[in-house]
Amino acid sequence: MGLGTGLTLAFLALMIITAAKSVAIVPQSEEYVVERLGKFRVTLNAGINILVPWLDNIAHKVVVLERQLDAFKVSVITADNVEIQLETTTFFRVTDAAKSVYRIRDIPLALKTTAESTIRNEAGKLELDALQSSRDQMNERILENLQEAAALWGLEVTRSEITDVQVDQQTKDAQRQQLNAERERRATVARAEGERARVQLEADAELYAAQKQAEAVKITADADAYATVKTAEAAAQQTKVIATAIADNGKPAIDYDILKRQVEAIGVLAASDNAKTIVLPTDVTKTVGALAGLQDLLKSS
């Protein structure tokens, strides 16, 4: 092979290399950081990108998929001086590839260190019971603090979870005693409330019965008063009728009413069960005869 052929082959090889260096195909899950003569120039997104060959260099290939830190434990002393172990994990992804390679070297270590500091600070403000019952709020506060620090490194912390709260055996025993005492207290309160409700219901029932009895007495009294009024009205009407008769017929009407009452009294006396022998005055027949005469006289008038 001659010199000319060698040069031709070398030139062709140079052209192929140059063409390869002028095109960059970036996968969907990555971003490429390009440097020109050792200085950052641009970040290439997914797809085909054109480069200046021999000047532009793909310095870093950054994965932008969401990633998870390995679970780690953080020793924390709570506000009530209880030492606990919090098992934590953090999820993140790269949002700015250039910042993630130029501002931080070891991303997992940086996030872990920041998370430990944030967790100790936030968990130390709470007592053990509050920490266990407000784990969601703790996760939110830790996430906010991590996001503020991660933004400087071109990262987004998508989630931070406290997966477990571990305490020593002595603390577990104390918690169990406290739980039993709380259950007993609630049972006592429930029994007391039940007794109070029973007494109140009985009192309400007695009050209801008394009210109904009072209403019955009132209704009876109203009925008696109504009957008395009607009896008085009837008596008044009868008196009025008698007065009218007296005014119209004079003495005969009076004598008629007196004789009528005498006859009625004799009839009642005769109908009595205790009446064995009845002695009547001799003028009874006269009374009956006079009553009949007066009745005829009143009818004729």
From TrEMBL:
| Residue ranges of domain Band in the record | 21-179
Where, per UniProt, does this protein localize? Membrane
Report what the protein is called. SPFH domain-containing protein
Q: How does it sit in the membrane?
A: Single-pass membrane protein
- Per the UniProt record, the source organism is Congregibacter variabilis
Q: What is its main location?
A: membrane
InterPro entries this protein is in? Answer: Band7/mec-2_domain (IPR050710), Band_7 (IPR001107), Band_7/SPFH_dom_sf (IPR036013), Stomatin_HflK_fam (IPR001972)
